Amino acid sequence: LDGSTGAVEYSCRLEAFYRFLVHHLDLDISLDLLLSSKRHPKKSKRKDTNRNTSSTFRLLDSMQGISFTIENEFITGSGDPTISTTRSLTLELSYTQSLLHMKSKESFLPFRQLLGLSLRREMRLRAWCAKTKNYETVVQRKTASSLPHLLSLSCACAKAGSDECLNIWRQNNETGGHWLPE
Q: How many folded domains does the chain comprise?
């Protein structure tokens, strides 16, 4: 796998394994809690307050789940905008958007700005429009609507495909100290 042209960078593999592990741990713990509550109904009075899609309490989701509101809007105005919600256990840092922001503004990018751009991102996509019966460009805005007790960040720079992303991590802060807050 490592030598093939379709090989995934090592850091991305580790990140994918982490996501897989957290997802399945969350499912297994939830299943154990559900089975335990069915065996001992008087002991378990815990209800799910974070997820509307399941009546099962999700332990890891309750600790590190991030709610996102996603709005898709056709730039031509020909289709109705759609709004949906989703949850994620990991926040992807938005290097592409941050690099564009750096090039347009200044050469230094504080961590708080990268985090902010990652919590509210905007991208252009193509989607089917029922009114025009054609693929149209939509602007998708994905905004974090709640923050977890434990924030898990996906920091892999390899998928961005260049050293520019690593340079973000190599820079110092405004006072010359470490880039990440301590």
A: 1
Both ends of the chain: CA-CA distance in Å? 37
Residue at 179 is within a domain: no
C-alpha closest to that of 69 among 125, 141, 126, 138: 141
Q: Can you tell me the distance from the alpha carbon of 178 to that of 171, in angstroms, rounded to the nearest whole number?
A: 8
Return the structure tokens found at 83: 């709004």
- DSSP H/E element including 103: helix 95-104
182 located within any domain: no
pLDDT digits (tens, 9 = 90+) for 49-104: 444 344 456 788 888 889 999 999 999 888 889 999 999 888 888 877 777 766 66
- Classify 36 in phi/psi space as left (phi over 0), alpha (psi -120 to 50) or beta: alpha
Q: Does the predicted model carry a pTM greater than 0.90?
A: no
Quick one: 113 exposed, middle or buried, by C-beta within 10 A (0-12, 13-18, 19+)? Answer: middle
Kindly give the pairing relationship between strand 91-92 and strand 153-154.
parallel
Q: Hunting for tokens 């840092």 — which residue is that?
A: 93
Residue type at position 1: L
